[in-house]
Amino acid sequence: MEPARFVALCGRVLPFAVALAVAMLAAGLLFSLALSPADYQQGESVRIMYVHVPAAWMALFVYALVAVLGGVGLAFGHALAFHAARAAAPLGAAFALLCLVSGSLWGKPMWGAWWVWDARLTSMLLLFFLYLGQIALSGAFDRQARGDRAAAVLALVGCVNLPVVKFSVDWWHTLHQPASVFKFGGPSIDPSMLLPLLLMAGAFKAVFFALWLIRTRTAVAASRVAAARLAGGAR
Amino acid sequence: MIDPASPYLSYVAAAYGACAVVLGGMTWRAWRGWRRVRDAWDRVQRRDRP
Amino acid sequence: MSRRRQRLVWLGVGLGAVFAAGALVLSALDDSLTFFYGPADLVERPDAFSRRVRLGGLVEPGSLVREGAAVRFTVTDGQVSLPVTFSGVLPDLFREGQGVVAEGRLSQDGHFAAETVLAKHDENYMPREVAEVLKQNGEWRAAR
Which bin fits C38, alpha (ψ -120 to 50), beta or left (φ > 0)? Predict the structure, then answer.
């Protein structure tokens, strides 16, 4: 798609994306802080789950998205795929960081430790570092196209870690509890707690989508501006 | 409704505070990025389609 | 074959190789990736008595005894039970019948001296009222 049309399209979609994100976030916060009960074992600390789990899902989802976009960019040479990947990666890193921080704040009162080196926590920390490496690599070259390619390769290689994060709690003994929502036999979480969890997951997804639109639009416009400057300087 | 007397209130508040900082920070950075390129983009557009 | 097809095939082959390598590394590291051993696994390990290890399992209901600042309890996996001693602050979630991970040393007589105790919680979330109804109806599956 040519830059002008893409930027115009983003401008038209953005108000709806922002409205959706704000509405979902308001509903999610209302249910997670006010309209849901305390847990029979964990008391009020269970509310940290409504931030922690959606952040973890987003960190995994965005990484897969960045890898797919990088793969498409490498295979077909689409500039838009690289712009979209570069726009998404820092958002995914922020979600990974939020997952680690909120998990730590949940672990201290419940487990009795801010951090342990079990397979789930360690693989999640590795995911955060993969994001950082990916972002650093994409900016490490004079020519953006080179950085994009290097970052895409790292994103694809780092995909190995995604199933490790997800299934670490099943493959090894970990302090972290196993999955509650996506597992055989249906969720082991009461509907009154599943609803805020899913609302917050939807809210995080909507927030990500709105910010991703803004950032991709910025990347597309900036690269067009840079090309125009180069052409202007050559004249 | 969250019980304000809960011993875990500070942990919950810190987690939601971290959430606000991360989401707010991401939004601020994304919008600042767009604001910086918007004017130059508009100039390029005017030149392309006078 | 077009250049694009060729690149796509190389991407696929490369990704397959990376995943295979990852699987090999993880299966080789299997033993060090586990955070704790259950009582039955622990007593069969040759190095169980020579180093700091983590013991995980359920706190046997009725086994908790407090002696001043020190506590004694039994960690079980349903077959083997090990007595544990600990002095210090137990985490809030520490309960009889719930999961626990103790880090410390196992002595030759099968007694585990814990230096830290972490509570492990399960994947079940529900309000207190629902838990009580489940218990009343006898649908409570203890020691999950």
Answer: beta
**Does residue C45 sit in the same domain as residue C73?**
yes
Residue B17 touches chain A, beta carbons under 8 Å: no
Same domain, C63 and C94: yes
- Cα distance between residue A29 and residue A126, in whole Å: 29
Structure tokens at C76: 């079980």
Average pLDDT, stretch C108-113? Answer: 87
Q: Looking at chain A, which residue has its C-alpha nearest residue C99?
A: A175
Return all residues near A171 (Cβ < 8 A) that are at least 6 apart. Answer: A119, C26, C33
User: How many folded domains does chain A comprise?
Assistant: 1
* Domain range enclosing C56: 36-120
The larger pLDDT score, comparing residue A160 to residue C141, is at: A160
Q: Are C92 and C65 found together in one domain?
A: yes
The complex scores an ipTM of 0.92
The identity of residue B12, as a single letter, is V
Select from A4, A51, A214 the Cβ nearest to the Cβ of B15.
Answer: A51
**Does A233 fall in a domain?**
no
Q: Do A71 and C11 touch (CB under 8 A)?
A: yes
State whether C23 and C83 are in the same domain: no
C-chain CB neighbours of A172 within 8 Å are 30, 33-35
Residue ranges of chain A whose CB lies within 8 Å of a chain C CB: 37-42, 46, 49, 71, 74-76, 109-113, 116-119, 156-157, 159-161, 164, 168, 171-175, 177-180, 183, 188-190, 192-193
In this predicted model, what pLDDT tens digit does every residue of B9-47 receive, in sequence order? Answer: 999 999 999 999 999 999 999 999 999 999 999 998 888
The phi and psi torsions of A175 (rounded to 5 degrees) equal: -75, -30
pLDDT in tens, A106-135: 999 999 999 999 899 999 999 999 999 999
Distance between alpha carbon C102 and the CA centroid of its chain, in Å? Answer: 9
End-to-end CA distance of chain B: 59
Contact between residue A135 and residue A89 where contact means Cβ atoms under 8 Å apart: yes
